[in-house]
Design goal:
By secondary structure, this protein is mostly beta strands. Helices cover 5% and strands 50% of the residues. Strands 1, 3, 6, 7, 8 and 10 form a 6-stranded antiparallel sheet that branches. A hairpin with a 2-residue loop joins strand 6 and strand 7.
Length: 155
């Protein structure tokens, strides 16, 4: 899992501000290993929002797993259907990019890239979303990136 070992920073286009809990929805939450936490785009924002993993060296990515919504159950409340979730996204790694659709379901969803794609960052840009039943916040709980670091003799 490159997300756990090779990510140096995580940035995003915006962050939902939780006044009582600063930092609760920061972009780094997508790689904290906790399904109950999440990055949140700024309130009422969705299409065009993004988060980006910056690797500490060039990597060759073969696949990724993503939890496209807020997978938490807080005090008995299931937050997944209540918040916006990614329906369609552009995945960008180096000079490569592709658009993909996600099912409206909780849990891991996998995108296999076929041949390894090399780069120093991976960006997920929201192109479409499923509406939440209560809130207009878009969340992503976790992402795992699979592959390996690029060595001088290839990936």
């Amino acid at each position: 899992n490159l997300s756990a070992s090779y990510v140096s920073t995580v940035t995003s286009s915006s962050v939902l501000q939780a006044v009582e809990h600063p930092g609760r929805y920061d972009a780094v939450k997508v790689v904290d290993g906790r399904e109950s936490s999440a990055w949140g785009a700024a309130r009422d924002h969705a299409v065009g929002e993004w988060f980006e993993l910056h690797f500490n060296e060039e990597v060759a990515v073969t696949s990724l797993d993503i939890m496209t919504g807020f997978n938490s159950r807080l005090r008995g409340n299931d937050l997944f259907p209540r918040n916006r979730r990614i329906q369609r996204a552009r995945i960008s790694i180096g000079d490569w990019s592709a658009e993909t659709d996600f099912a409206d379901r909780r849990g891991w969803q996998t995108l296999r890239l076929g041949a390894p794609v090399r780069g120093r960052s991976l960006r997920v840009t929201v192109l479409g979303f499923y509406e939440g039943s209560r809130w207009t916040d878009l969340h992503v709980s976790e992402i795992r990136v699979w592959g390996q670091p690029v060595r001088d003799d290839g990936p």
